[in-house]
Amino acid sequence: MKGFIFDLDGTLYLGESMIDGAAEAVQALRDRGDRVVFLTNKPIATRLSYAEKLTKMGIPATLEDVLNSSQIVAKYLQKHMKPSDRIYVIGEDPIHEELREHGVPYTMEINDLDYVILSWDRQFTYDKLNYLYQAYMSGAKVIASNPDMTCPTDFGQIPDTGAIIAALEAITGKPIDFVAGKPSLIAAEAAAEQLGLPVESCYMVGDRLDTDIKMGNDAGMNSVLVLTGVTTAEMAEQSATVPKHIIHTIKEVVQI
After folding, report:
1. In whole angstroms, what is the distance from residue 223 CA to residue 160 CA?
2. What is the second-level CATH architecture of the domain 80-179?
């Protein structure tokens, strides 16, 4: 039995358009007894909305089939935060909802913070950047939901959480504390646990070398690069991050 961890944007669909053959490929894997989970770094939608979107597109999915970076952040905080810790969140409604569902308290006050959760925020402003900077300089740990610089859409790439991380790192000259989503081992372990399989039986399938493929390689999984998203064949050839498999489209995943 194999476990397949599928990225979403750029792998199974682009924006609102399903990639040709994606539904049939996932169903073929399920029919032969393999396990499937969907793992996305994109924090601006809820897991339920992803499950509903996949189901509408022809890939039946429940809430338990979907992992996203917001949930991974919430689970991390559940395990590691102290009752007295003060947490501030920069991000959109879905990550706030995920934190609330996991019982993670946070504040809208910016003083005496222990953590700042940094996520994709399409209403990011200078004031928010200043809050982030002042909290960092006061000793707060900065945890990012995901490191993606851009997100693929029907209309091309748009700035993602990584752009906001870069702004803070440019000011401080230092990296943030860590990223919870792909390519972290935290995300890899969460996906393998969801599948109920050892990492060596898992296949990480995605379109990004710096997140999907790096996570798969670092975790000891079988990494599978698809060329329907942000990474081209030329980029893959020049990269130091080498996928174990390269396929042109998700339709070919059943042949691995």
Report:
1. 23
2. 3-Layer(aba) Sandwich (3.40)
